[in-house]
Amino acid sequence: METIVASVSPQSLAQAAELLRQGQVVGMPTETVYGLAANALDGAAVARIFAAKGRPQDNPLIVHVDSVAMWETVVEHLTPAARRLIDAFCPGPLTIILPRGRRVADEVCAGLDTVAVRMPSHPAARALIKECSLPLAAPSANLSGSPSPTTAAHVLGDMDGRIPLILDGGDCGVGVESTVVTLAGEQPVLLRPGYITREQLEQVLGCPVQLAHAVTHQLAAGEKAASPGMKYKHYAPRADVTILQGDLAQYREFLQQHAGEGVWALCFEGEEEGLPVPAVTYGLAADDATQAHALFGALRRLDEVGAKTVYARCPSETGVGLAVYNRLLRAAAFRVVAL
Ligand code: TXA
Ligand code: MG
Predict the structure, then answer these.
(1) Beta strands of the chain (E only): which ranges?
(2) Residue 269: phi, psi to the nearest 5?
(3) Each residue of 130-167: pLDDT tens digit?
């Protein structure tokens, strides 16, 4: 199959909508990362997403809608708490899990009785959903296990020959996937940190939001994941990544002792000067949103340069930094060293 990359225009949106109506899969920009979209009401179309990604069948997808009215058609019903979150943060990078509606294809929910839904703010994603009038199931548009794509070129790198069309909407603003919160249990639980922070959710909900253990810890053998996606190795470059906790002086000293063939630094901008090994940077030390924006591109870059061993500066665990730390932990297979 030939894969076409088309910049967003009325023509390419119409072509994408037609492919979606026919049950095909299309690469779609969102404000977080690129998604692989298909009609969420059509099981055969959704199965094509799993095939294109090589995704395990038990890992459910997020449904993308363009209005509250469409949201109501894919869930059992919108609870008052869900409505408060939607009013505060949607359209935007927040996914809410609720009991599922019957119309959603079983393949989307991977056997669960809940469904994850979000309303993206990216104009191309919104225009595409409107154009085809369908809720779109879309996971991140990477091959299962590699970093999420934040440019159309990243999507093409993973999906060339696997899907007919990628809409190029430029660089994704946020750069990490949406915050995932479940409202399907007795208390809200944050399953995946993102640009919308736990603190923001608590403020709007007026109650504590639990942090799922797997956000910052490796699941023990046999431990059940609250969200199936948490149990898979993710975002991993080919190199062995280790996160180093400590200040810049300690980081430099560690690199002095561990410099060698194939060793690279993953540090913040401006820190690369004077390091004994080559470096790729990911944002500014004091600005977690810039780290989120740059992280996945930096991980892909480390693959391109052939890094074998990567030592990463550690982000903070507060605000958007928690999302950055969560993704980097998985890239590092949970290897963290305190200096
Ligand atoms: O920003 C995003 O959310 C991007 C863009 C494309 O919208 N999408 C994305 O999808 O990151 P994906 O499939 O890569 O991640 C969805 C996550 C997975 O960890 C999955 O296990 C979890 O959400 N999830 C989906 N449905 C769920 C459910 N019903 N219960 C618990 N977790 C669920
Ligand atoms: Mg993903």
Answers:
(1) 4-7, 26-28, 35-39, 62-64, 94-99, 114-118, 136-137, 165-168, 179-182, 189-192, 210-211, 240-245, 263-267, 279-281, 309-313, 336-338
(2) -55, 135
(3) 999 999 999 999 998 888 999 999 999 999 999 999 99
Q: Burial level of 98, CB count in 10 A (0-12/13-18/19+)?
A: buried
CB contact burial 176-198 (16+ within 10 A = b; e otherwise): bbbbbbbbbeeebbbbbbbbbbb
Of 95, 154, 178, 190, the residue with max ligand 1 atoms within 8 A of its CB, to mutate for a pocket test, comes to 95
Residues 181 and 198: their CA atoms lie apart, in Å, by 9
Ligand 1, atom 33, lies closest to the CA of 227
Give the mean model confidence (pLDDT) for residues 65-75: 98
Q: Give per-residue pLDDT as tens, 208-218.
A: 999 999 999 88
Query: pTM for this one?
Result: 0.96
Beta carbons of 246 and 285 less than 8 angstroms apart: no
What is the rounded average pLDDT for all residues in the chain? 95
- Give the whole-angstrom CA distance, residue 322 versus residue 197: 8
Ligand 1 neighbourhood includes 62 CB (under 6 angstroms): yes
Is residue 44 classed exposed, middle or buried when 0-12, 13-18 and 19+ CB atoms within 10 A define those classes? exposed
Structure token digits, residue 94: 């927040």
Mutation pick for ligand 1 pocket among 46, 61, 154, 231 (CB with most ligand atoms within 8 Å) = 61
Whether residue 73 contacts residue 103, with contact meaning beta carbons closer than 8 Å, is answered with yes
CB of 212 within 6 A of ligand 1: the answer is no
Q: Is the peptide bond before 91 cis (omega within 30 degrees of 0)?
A: yes
Structure-block tokens of residue 173 = 């603003």
